[in-house]
Design goal:
Elements: H1 2-22, H2 27-33, E1 36-41, H3 49-64, E2 69-74, H4 82-91, E3 96-97, H5 101-104, H6 123-130, H7 133-140, E4 147-152, E5 156-162, E6 177-180, H8 184-192, E7 196-199, H9 205-210, E8 216-219, H10 221-226, E9 235-244, E10 247-251, H11 252-256, H12 260-281, H13 284-294, E11 298-300, H14 304-313, H15 315-321, H16 327-336, H17 340-343
Helix pairs in contact: 3-12
The structure holds (2R,3R)-2,3,4-trihydroxybutanoic acid.
Length: about 350
């Protein structure tokens, strides 16, 4: 509330400033009145590939606006958890954020189609779907929630990290307290295989692992490592159960109040940042996996048979939950991903 009040006061002053400037002759004065800062919050560690991409975004925006637009990045959950930051972006308390698609699906149910496990085999297939008309349509749907999506970022394939022992098959998950995001479809899947999913915001995870509140966590290797989750949870398994895109968001009210020129600068820079993130992500899992092992962690691959068990474990979940989401879109995604296993079991 205090923050909101101070923002209101600040904008009132800005408005007065603008008023004063508009009487001035010099074009410099007009340009100065157009200078502003975009606050961009995320939970990802500073220096991770995603934030390297966002740094490029900030640099490009500064350069192409001749320094008028400053993008100030707040990594490492400095501005809170993902839900909180999405709300702050809706209200205009901050201008940008980039949450996991799962958390964002709480604000736009159509996005739940990405919360189903084992859809994508590899990142190329995911990119093909995200970059299609269907991907654009899903992003455009966010406007009704007061958010403009500048594109699909990338967290990556999520894997398991356990505190006490390695998990190999879905049967090993019986009664396991697994920290998940606050994502109803993720909770439903883990429950359906007998686990005890425990949803919590990202900033609380490290302490919960350390204190034994949860037995494990799931996230891509890079984030597991940089957020230091692999210190308490060092038994990892490469399940790749969910491909997790992040969505780069900007407040709709804020964005639409910018000039067409500035909107273009922002959109173009986001596109280039996404290309950079994708290229940085290409080999990151292998690189980080080696670092995790060097630090004393154990990383286990699934055999073909174990992977088959994981995929089969999701069939009842698909059967029970496909009708609870936008089934047509889910089918379209499975089809585009060439995933017949689940297409065949849903109506
Ligand atoms: O979006 O909360 C999570 O586990 C997410 O993967 C993380 O916030 C990045």
């Amino acid at each position: 509330m205090i923050r909101r009040m101070s923002l209101i006061i600040a904008s009132a002053f800005a408005a007065l400033g603008l008023f004063a400037w508009s009487g001035g002759e010099s074009s410099k004065a007009v340009a100065a009145s157009d200078s502003y800062t975009i606050k961009f919050g995320n939970v990802i560690s500073a220096g991770d590939t995603q934030n390297q991409g966002y740094e490029l975004f900030a640099d490009l925006v500064a350069e192409r606006s001749d320094g008028r637009i400053t993008v100030q990045i707040y990594p490492d959950s400095q501005l809170g958890g993902e839900r909180e930051m999405i709300e702050a972006t809706q209200f205009g308390d901050i201008e940008m954020t980039a949450p996991s698609v799962g958390v964002l699906a709480n604000f736009d149910k159509s996005l739940q189609v990405f919360d189903f496990p084992f859809i994508f085999e590899d990142a190329e297939t995911a990119y093909k779907v995200l970059d299609s008309e269907l991907g654009d349509e899903l992003l455009a749907g966010l406007e009704k929630s007061g958010l403009i999506a500048l594109g699909w970022g990338e967290n990556g394939f999520r894997n398991l990290a356990m505190v006490d022992e390695t998990v190999k098959t879905p049967a090993d998950m019986q009664g396991v307290k697994l920290r998940t995001m606050q994502v109803p479809m993720h909770l439903a899947y883990w429950k359906s295989i007998g686990a005890a999913p425990t949803p919590m915001p990202f900033p609380e995870v490290f302490t919960s692992l350390q204190q034994g509140v949860v037995d494990g966590v799931e996230n891509p290797y890079e984030l597991l490592f940089s957020a230091r989750f692999t210190e308490p949870a060092h038994y990892l398994t490469e399940t790749r159960h969910i491909y997790d895109p992040e969505v780069i968001l900007i407040s709709k009210t804020f964005f639409e109040s910018r000039s067409a020129e500035d909107q273009q600068i922002i959109r173009d820079a986001a596109k280039e940042a996404i290309a950079k993130i994708r290229s940085l992500k290409t080999n990151i899992s292998d690189e980080i996996r080696a670092k995790i092992e060097a630090a004393g962690g154990t990383v286990t691959d699934l055999s073909d048979e174990e992977r088959r068990q994981w995929i089969e474990s999701a069939i009842p979940f698909y059967q029970q939950n496909a009708s609870k989401v936008d089934t047509e879109k889910l089918k379209a995604i499975l089809e585009a991903a060439g995933n017949t296993t689940f297409l065949e079991v849903i109506q």
